[in-house]
């Protein structure tokens, strides 16, 4: 690791504690000037330090920047299972990770970023991903399942996100079919799972599960086109290393569910968190929009709906909008 990475890892492990330049220089066998430059580089990246003559530097407890060592701290003993790559900004964490997957990256590789310039949601929609107010991460999977099981990856991720943000924020989180996590009726998270299939066997070569969470509203608010539907986990910056805590919580819970994917043990909770069942909805992405009543979610994650003409259908694709 570089001097910067070594020093950051030690600061992450000792948030709120002062570490002197002399102590850091001796520990990593570098000059005090190299320590000072590393701290200044970290400050330029958004990390917040307190400095005190004679005591050194202290990474503030409320500094909230995503880092590999920061995420690993909250993963605890599970940290070694994952190859975590953290970037300030990427085009899309899914795009970056798919390229890595094609080059042979192992299951459990994670790409995380503080911003995306070309974030994507379902149906190839742009996913608003401003720098600094969100958490964007993708997890590489190499499951031995057929394409029909792929939807359960997305539903497992939705439950993992809902549980994590609920645990950390104390706010109740619901799930709108199929992959949106909501707080107070507003979308705070979108999930996009993309896969590469072996055309002969029908089995997956790999899947990339991308998760975008709005931690706080962006400066100036959300863009006009999503202002009525988008929300964030917190109204104001919460501090307390929230982004790393949420990233680690999502990874741990999602991989727990993923490792039990055939049993679908998370599915009961997915259904219980549904904010779609029982609501009047508009079915989108399947030709002309149609009004319907959402009746139930079946064991294959299909949404059973009844249209205004009385006909019923199980939706396994497309999107729905809840009509309030």
How would you sum up the global shape?
A: elongated
Oligomer kind:
single chain
User: Structural class of the helix and strand makeup?
Assistant: alpha+beta
What is the H/E order? HHHEEHEHEEHEEEEHHEEEEE
Query: In total, how many beta strands?
Result: 14
Strand percentage lies at: 25-35%
Overall pLDDT level: 91
- The strand order across the widest sheet is 3-4-5-9-8-7-6
Give structural attributes:
324 residues, alpha+beta, seven-stranded mixed beta sheet, five-stranded antiparallel beta sheet, 8 helices, 14 strands, elongated
Notes on the structure:
The chain contains 8 helices and 14 strands. The protein starts with a helix and ends with a strand. With 324 residues, the chain is α+β, with helices and mostly antiparallel strands. The strands form 3 sheets. A 7-stranded mixed beta sheet has the order 3-4-5-9-8-7-6, sandwiched between helices. A 5-stranded antiparallel beta sheet has the order 13-12-11-10-14, with no helix packed on it. Strands 1-2 form a two-stranded antiparallel sheet. The chain is 29% helix and 27% strand. The radius of gyration is 21 Å and the shape is elongated. The longest helix has 20 residues, at 150-169. The protein has helices at 3-13, 21-28, 32-44, 68-75, 93-102, 150-169, 242-258, 267-272, and strands spanning 49-52, 56-59, 83-90, 109-116, 134-141, 173-176, 180-183, 186-197, 204-214, 280-284, 290-297, 303-307, 312-315, 319-322.
């Amino acid at each position: 690791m570089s001097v910067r990475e070594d020093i950051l890892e030690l600061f992450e492990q000792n948030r709120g504690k002062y570490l002197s330049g002399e102590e850091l220089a001796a520990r990593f066998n570098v000059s005090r000037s190299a320590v000072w430059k590393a701290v200044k580089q970290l400050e330029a990246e958004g990390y917040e330090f307190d400095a005190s003559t004679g005591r050194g530097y202290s990474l503030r407890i409320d500094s909230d920047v995503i880092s590999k060592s920061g995420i690993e701290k909250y993963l605890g003993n599970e940290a070694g299972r994952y190859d975590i790559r953290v970037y300030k900004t990427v085009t899309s964490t899914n795009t970056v990770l798919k390229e890595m997957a094609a080059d042979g990256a192992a299951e459990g590789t994670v790409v995380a970023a503080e911003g995306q310039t070309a974030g994507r949601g379902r149906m190839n929609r742009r996913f608003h991903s401003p720098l600094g107010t969100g958490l964007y991460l993708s997890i590489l999977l190499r499951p031995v399942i057929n394409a029909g099981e792929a939807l359960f990856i997305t539903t497992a991720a939705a439950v993992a996100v809902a549980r994590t943000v609920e645990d950390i924020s104390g706010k109740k989180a619901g799930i709108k079919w199929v992959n949106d996590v909501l707080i107070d009726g507003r979308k705070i998270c979108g999930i996009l799972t993309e896969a590469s299939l072996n055309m002969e066997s029908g089995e997956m070569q790999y899947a990339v599960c991308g998760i975008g969470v709005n931690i706080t509203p962006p400066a100036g608010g959300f863009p006009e086109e999503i202002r009525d539907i988008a929300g964030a986990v917190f109204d104001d910056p919460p501090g307390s290393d929230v982004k790393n805590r949420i990233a680690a919580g999502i990874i741990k819970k999602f991989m727990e569910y993923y490792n039990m994917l055939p049993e679908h043990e998370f599915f009961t909770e997915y259904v219980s968190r549904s904010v779609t069942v029982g609501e009047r909805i508009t079915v989108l992405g399947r030709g002309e929009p149609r009004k319907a009543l959402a009746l139930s979610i079946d064991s294959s994650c299909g949404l059973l709906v009844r249209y205004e003409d009385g006909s019923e259908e199980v939706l396994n694709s497309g999107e729905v909008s809840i009509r309030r």
